[in-house]
Amino acid sequence: MIQKEDAVPVNDTETLGEGVERTSTRFSLRKASKIEILTFISIGVVNFAGFGTYSIISPFFPNEAIQRGVSQTVVGVIFGCYAVVAFLSGTVFGKYVAVIGSRFMLITGIFVTGCASILFGFLDYMEGTTFVVFCIAIRTTEALGVSAYATASTTILTHAFPNDVAKVMGILEIFTGVGLMACPPIGGLLYKIGGFRLPFLSMGGLMLSCGVIVWILVPPQADEREEEKKSGALLKLLKVPTVILTCGIVVVIAAAMSYLDPILQPFLESQFSLSPTTIGLIFLLRSAVYTILAPLWGWLADKKGASRIMTSVGMVTFAVSCLLIGPSPLLTEYIHIFPNAKPLWITIVGLVVMAVAMGVEYSPVYNELLWAARDAGLEENIATFGVISGLFYSFFAIGEFVGPTVSSALVQQIGLPWASTAFGGLALFYTVVMVVFYVYDSCYRSKRGSIRQSTDEEKPLLG
Fold it and tell me: Which of 235, 338, 346, 428 is the most buried (most CB within 10 A)?
């Protein structure tokens, strides 16, 4: 039987720490305890630093690598290689987060990520094959850190606010978006001032500082106080059809969000002769739109009836944005909507539309996994939340690998406009799959509900 979100039990007096109790699971900064606020802000700062570390290289690294004898395809592999490790480690971290301890996993992951970023800066001394090998080695190490802290932070917040996950994640995306917004232009500026090393040393130091803040402010979590620690039912969750479909959505969304990372900077530089600082500002614009709208999408995504509509509409909107970036030859050579001159403003409009689409399609997917777990009868505890978080980030990692790797290979063969068109086609194809499944699922649930209602009405007569 489907459980609506208002049917989820609310613990009125759940203990959060020594002498601290929570009076509601509803997310409200006014009603939240001081520990909840500090935990939320600390994880928000970590998100800012973590995504800043990820995005700071976009304005300068692809061209820097190409100058060192690295092909465009290998640049895509460098951007996406950590996703393989993140995929393999995400499910493991999620399954055993209650055993390892979510706070310990969070802090350790932050410190590993910070150290990896600092080491990446010293690749300035390398060239050719040596440069590529060490890039991949450090990125895979960073993957373990990112996978650990991302899984742990989402688990902690989901356990604290189980009924308002999308709202919490939407507000958290402000920190994420600011990191994605501010750090590309900052990275371009630091690169201009201090060369290759300075951006990585700066962000690595910031990440290590965040680890100290989390260690001081985030208290021991529920899993560290449990006498008997259990891992969540991963295999049971993977048998649920909604979970399988949603994991596929996560892959497509992650690929959509990352496919431009290794290819947009060289394209903008070669086609429009833009400087690293200007390219950073273009990345900033996309992130700004995403950040401003993220809380709105999070609020809407907590409404169970709206989530599937949001995902479908977001996918279609994303496909449209892919056609505008370049723009697509379909629009310039076949139906002649835009002139062959391909002005810069069309690509910028495409990036803005893409930012809107990413927020709409991304916000509901984590809630879909939570609702599917509830419908499957899994117990709502930190072990289950850990499994869901690990599953989410594992499949997100697959998309983050597929996006940069495939887009780089496509650009080398057919150019960015056609490569972007291909990703738009992927989004449309999966939208069709989603809509078919959603219609079938809705009909099946309605039929099952009618049968149960009829059975309940007959029971008094049979008695």
Answer: 346
Nearest partner of 162 among 25, 33, 3, 330, judged by Cα: 25
Whether the CB-CB separation of 215 and 39 falls below 8 Å is answered with no
Which of 42, 30, 76 shows the shortest CA–CA distance to 212? 42
Query: What is the token pair recorded at 92?
Result: 């493991």
Residues 399, 258: contact at Cβ < 8 Å? yes
Dihedral (CA of 97, 101, 102, 108) sign: negative
14 membership: H or E segment, kind and range: strand 14-17
Cα distance between residue 245 and residue 249, in whole Å: 6
Locate tokens 């932070």: which residue? 153
Single out the residue of 83, 82, 59, 187 nearest to residue 138, CA to CA: 82
CA separation, residue 453 to residues 311, 415, 445, 448, 462 (Å): 30, 57, 12, 9, 15
Q: Running DSSP on this structure, what letter comes out for residue 330?
A: I
**CB-count exposure of residue 350 (10 Å: 0-12, 13-18, 19+):** buried
**Count of all residues that appear for the chain in the document:** 463
d(CA 14, CA 23): 7
